[in-house]
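[job 4417] fold queue: 2 targets
>>> target A
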Amino acid sequence: ELAANWFRSTEANTMPVPSPPDITKHIMALPASDWGLPQLNGLVETPTLRQDGTILWSRGYDAQSWLYCLPDETLGDMDPLPDIISEFDCDDAIHLIDETICDFPFEDDASRANFYALLLTPILRRSYDGCTPLALIDAPAAGTGKTLLTDVFSVITSGRDASKMSFPKDEAELHKTVGSVLYAGGSQVIFDNVSGIISHPALALALTTMVFPFRILGISRMAEPENRATWIANGNQLHPGGDM
């Protein structure tokens, strides 16, 4: 295994730095086969189900799924997951989650079940091909806890609070925002405090395609990032409209 660590030294100290831009450009310009580098499909930070049903949770590169597993520090001390999950393990997990969300005023059992499905989505996302629907966390009025519930989802599935953004009204702005998040490898796309009807051609496109083409900001070049994100919008009196 070959690795290179780059540092910059000053009179005060020595600090790690990214590789020089020229080195990176040379590596990116040549086919991976010329360097003997394995294919990399993405980075995961939580236990992830492979397509064959096995669980990926070992730190480092996984040649079977072409994923690199880098658990968040808050999740790094988790006990190893057993190869076979027992009925008691499932009961314990359900009880723990029930305690975590017991104070949220879910409208009915179906709404609670939908939240469980949302919790499972990041873990299952790499195990199937195809698109993922937008999860709506709707509330009748402000102060009900929709943003907090979004953070609860993110803490459970990634170890940290959700990285949220406002919902752009402009078509071009939404296209750039979504494209930039996916291009950066974002595993969550979360729109916070959306009001009224949620309907947008660019969002409809993003939710129904596995590859999202967009123009990279600052340069005249198109990118086609893969869409493996979990999609969430929260707000008051939310209603999908149009093709949504």
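>>> target B
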Amino acid sequence: NFRNSLVTVQFILLVGLLSMTIFVYQQMNFISNKDLGFQKEGVLFFGLSGGEKYAQLKTQLAAIPEVEAVGAGDVPGWEMYNQSTYKMKDSELTLSDGTVVYTSQDALNVLQIDCQTCIELADKDRVFVINQTAAEKLAKIQGISPEELVGKTLISEPEYENEEFGFGIPYTIAGIIPDFDYFSLKYPSQSLFLDIVKTPNYVQSVLLKVDTKNWQKVLNKIEKAYKTVETETPFAFTFLDDRLQQLYLSEKRAGLLLSG
């Protein structure tokens, strides 16, 4: 009886281990093949501080034949960070699951993010759009359709007082964009707000869409251009695809351990 019980326990543990291995494999396969809503192949980014430096560098980078698009702005592929509060101007209910992303129209072009409002308002210096998830939450609170939010005012961080606006920072909603996975897939259905400028004054990252068969050659060209505007900080780049892979490194390691 003891031997039979031991065999049964071992069998149950084996089935559980196999089930867990299959589950992890399916999850990693899903992550690898899921459409994130933006371009990740052939995209790299690197740090740069200052709008003036970016303006000079952008001209040089755009002249490189292998560089298809240049932009400046926040880069997707993060763990969750910087969630802030927000509400509609005429509402008392405050939500706390929003993230404001500062970016440029050029950066959206690099990432090929679907923003029809940006195309329609291309002559504007600044455009504020919200994703579909945020639109549906706010529309439900207001008792209106998501489309009726366009033109209304959203207040970010309404509890904080500032000299310019009083309480909170007001944004006029110019449009609604489809959801895309800015953060790790561990955090679905996040309210995302894009503060999009034509000419960024505040720059931390430069994004490039590159089409090339000789990466070392084109990277040398990019570094050479970079060094004409930045002499103190060494050139260091990251491929967006690699950045996204790093988000799920722990899950991959778990899968390798289970399969081993």
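[job 4417] complete. Note on B: DSSP finds eight helices and eleven strands in the chain.
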